[in-house]
Amino acid sequence: MAQIPFEKNLDSTLALIGDPYRFISDRCRRHRSDLFETRLLLERTICMTGPEAARLFYNPDLFVRKGAMPKAIQKTLLGEGGVQGLDGGSHRHRKQMFMSLMSPAQIGELTRLTAAEWQARMRAWTSTPNVVLYPEFQRLLTRASCAWVGIPLADPEVDARSRNIVALFDHAGSVGVRHLWSRWSRKRADRWLANIVEEFRSGRLHLPEHTAAHAVAWYRNPDGALLAPQVAAVELLNLIRPIAAVSVYMIFVAHALHMHPDIRDKLRSGDDDYANLFVQEVRRYYPFFPAVAARARRTFELNGYKILEGRRVILDLYGSNQDRRTWEKPEEFEPERFCRWDGGQFNFIPQGGGDHYVNHRCPGEWITIALMKQATEMLTQQMAYDVPEQDLQIEWSRMPALPRSRFVISNVITREAPWATATT
């Protein structure tokens, strides 16, 4: 049996931190293999890339999620006890609750709420000399997502709650003070939402029946037990946090529009089909989340290599979306390529692969696409602006990666928008 290619160094953690999006694919090319083995945090870990690796990774007979993610990510980005760490029937049961919230009507309600926030912020931008879009998008989406979940924020608390929620994904991959801030933010956000769940269950607080907060608070595990308030808080954040994180993709929408003015001109026509192609290409081309982790459920063979039971395995998301076996000239930005895409579940995986109902694939993908399309319309049809001189290079060592300037606009002019009755 062949030996898995192995990185000949003591530990690759610092190399991964230094280039989280290209670490796996670069080394796979060096080893001329879709997988290699290394040590991360001194633990032997197999790293994989490509569509066939993704197909295996999302096979629940081969891999489990429990205990796979590093504690640092559990304590910040994901929280403890949430759906991401479940497997088998427990995962499918909990996932069904999330999927029930992804109906066209629910997504339409969210886009209506975000439209109102867009209109309010655009009016403010017209009187602001320079607008840094990244923090603006964060506040806009935090406020809209909390209202959609059923926990509207009062004006005085928007900034503080937004900073806490954003820290869960914006600093989770950091080290030092920023990572400690992310951990503190997780504890504070968990306490806030756990208290709301307890208040609601006791009858001291009303949550409308159609809201996600109501669904989470009264969700019961397969054994009939309600979620512990702390776990319910984690699941509420699993709704709010990913919506706030779409701010990263919205910045990349702005970046792509600026870098490709010919595409911007096409989108001004309001062609919904082309907007779909554009948004998908933004999700493929730009870095979002670099990788996901699992553990081998049992010992099995992969292309002549033995994968041992319990071995941690990391799947390269970004590199898989750049795989030349699927994508011709992946380094080029070309929305039209999605006219030729076969719709496969494992060759385009910016938010995970497989089936949304069964596998560990983000249930909020449709929300992400809807909010990115809305941002595309707002930036091309509902407002005009200048892009002053700034550093728009992508910070690849940062997670999430972003333009260095966080994208600054000026001289904003707005137009009346039809989003008050927006649907998806």
Count of individual beta strands: 10
Derived structural class = alpha+beta
Rg to the nearest angstrom? 21 Å
Shape: globular
Low-confidence stretches: 417-424
Biggest sheet character: 5 strands, mixed
Helix content: 40-55%
Helix and strand pattern: HHEEHEHHHEHHHHHHHEEEEHHEE
Tell me the strand order in the biggest sheet: 1-2-8-5-3
- Total number of helices: 15
Distance between the termini: 51 Å
Beta content:
5-15%
Mean pLDDT rating: 93
Note down, in words, how this protein is organized.
With 424 residues, the chain is α+β, with helices and mostly antiparallel strands. Helices cover 47% and strands 11% of the residues. It has helices spanning 13-18, 23-31, 51-57, 71-78, 88-100, 104-125, 133-149, 158-170, 177-201, 212-217, 229-259, 261-267, 272-285, 317-320, 365-382, and strands at 35-40, 43-48, 63-64, 130-132, 291-296, 300-302, 305-307, 312-316, 383-386, 408-414. A five-stranded mixed β-sheet has the order 1-2-8-5-3. Strands 4-10-9 form a three-stranded antiparallel β-sheet. The protein starts with 12 loop residues before the first helix and ends in a 10-residue tail after the last strand.
